[in-house]
Amino acid sequence: MAELEHKYEVDINEKEGRQKLPQEVKDELKASGMMDEKGKLKLKGVSPKMLKKMKQEYVDCPVLKEEIQFIQCFVCPNFQSRVMGKVLCKGDAL
Question: Which of 43, 56, 88, 94 has the greatest number of CB atoms lying within 10 Å of its CB?
């Protein structure tokens, strides 16, 4: 299998407790149908147990140059894959 083309390999870090998604990210998720009107995430192919874990994770985004919640990274167009505690990122400008 060919390796996915990516510019960055970003480590996934974990924080205790839940983190809040910024309002603009929530609006984007609602517009794309990944979040219902009550604010509940509905990601296809992601189990509730995995979703709970994802809510406690964050990455240092090389594109935005800031710390963002993993869910924001997961729905980003630059997201390629999650492999063994790392995210493969295309690194294109947003």
Answer: 88
